[in-house]
Amino acid sequence: MVTKANIEKEGFFIEITCPGCGGNLELQDNFFAVECSHCSSRHRLVMPNSPPAFLTKAKVTTREARFAIDRYAKKHNLPLSSSDFQLKKVYYPYWKIDAVLFRYRKRVEKRVVMSDDYDTNSEISYDTEKTEISLSPYTTTLLAGVRFEGLPESIGLRSNYLKLNIFADHLVEDDFDSLPVAKSWETMRSSLMSHIGSIGSYDSNHFGANKTEVFCPKASLIYFPFMVFDFYDDDNFHRYVVDAVTGRILSNITELNITGEYPDQMPDIKFGEIKIEQHRCGNCGEDLPADESLVYICKNCQVLTDLEPGVAIDTISAVDIELNPDDIMVPFWSLKLHREDAKRIQPFFGGMFHSDHIVIPAFKVSNFDAMSKLAKRVSSAYPKFKFREISDMDNQFRNVNLPLTEAILLASLFIHKDKYVKGLGNKDTKSETFVPTEISLFYAPFHLESYFYVDSYLNAVTFEKKLV
User: Fold this and answer.
1) Would you say 352 and 360 are in contact if contact means Cβ atoms under 8 Å apart?
2) Rg of the Cα trace of the chain?
3) Strands 13-17 and 163-166: what pairing?
4) Nearest to 222 by CA among 75, 54, 8, 407
5) Phi and psi for 187 in degrees, rounded to 5?
6) d(CA 273, CA 46)
7) Could you tell me the maximum CA-CA distance found in the chain, to the nearest angstrom?
8) From edge to edge, which strands make up the β-sheet containing 42-46?
9) Fewer CB atoms inside 10 A, N or C side of the chain?
10) How far apart are CA 45 and CA 16, in angstroms?
11) pLDDT digits (tens, 9 = 90+) for 360-409
12) pTM of the predicted model as reported, rounded to 2 decimal places
């Protein structure tokens, strides 16, 4: 019988302790708010500005690891593990980086067609210019410690579905060592650019113009457990590296090539401190909804609560229309431009016409190209909307989970993309930068028609239903 308790979870999630009763809590995907199943109190995780550190606990015993090694050795006609092996159990640090990847590809393709002259049966060739421009989410892991012979360069896509704990010394088992971080996040930024450059390094003669850039990188540290077995057999050296979470054999080394040494001085790495706060209204103390949102209107006292540091929202508006029961209210950040900025940006940002506002969806979307299209459509429609101030929100209102700071960065990124669409590239970097003169949050009504949401005010703006 499959129960809720024994269903295997998917996705990146962490365990924390409830500050109210001490019970175990699990936060998955959003790392935001959770309701304790033991005492029913609500809490939220406050992520730091500097990179936090996590640890994934070892699950494999020494006996299980040796059994995996012997099974691997037998399968590959190698000597079984010796009883006098040397075992090192280590937690090795990796930088996990989440970013937005910008790809620009422009090339000329040669096409060959038959001519209309059937008597000669000749061929005609012509060149077609093809341009591909895309924005996509990008995740990678890179070595954060000194190179250790046999350990993998990356833990790959596993970083997106590991079960993690917030890193603490007492969580490291007595027979494990946590290796120090030898590369700071500042150092890794330049390494990341080189890593991205290798992704975009194609044959320029064949592919033509080729550019790959990374934007909005966010970093965290992940300590991953390994077991390293060293032993000799008939004077031959063997090293087996075992994944201490799954028991999988990662490498079999017969000769050490020591390439990395500890630097004279290790960088002073201070992990960002993750805080746990009560998820309550600051005015009346009522519990706020456990859904991930940066903006709430308390149902008890109707006071606006804004959770993004450094951002003060005085009022929230909605497009002035009588709602239907099937409408959903979708949140958007509205960024008013200075007159000179509007003149520079309007030609790039999808033809905003007379709009002096850049409007960015206030909810997270993994498809950045679709998000860019929606932003341009709503920006163009913005001058036609009429607004009213709202004092409460119900289930028709969708959550605000894209911070304003990220919305401004994405606006600059969308402008950057449009410049390449228009063939201007990096000719004018100033046009990508702007400082909003006014910032507001508003909701627009949309209703579902087949596979698309259509705005209920103009019946003109659409987006795919899977975006929300």
Assistant:
1) no
2) 27
3) parallel
4) 54
5) -65, -40
6) 9
7) 89
8) 33-35, 42-46, 275-278
9) N
10) 9
11) 999 998 899 999 999 999 999 999 999 999 988 989 999 999 999 999 99
12) 0.81
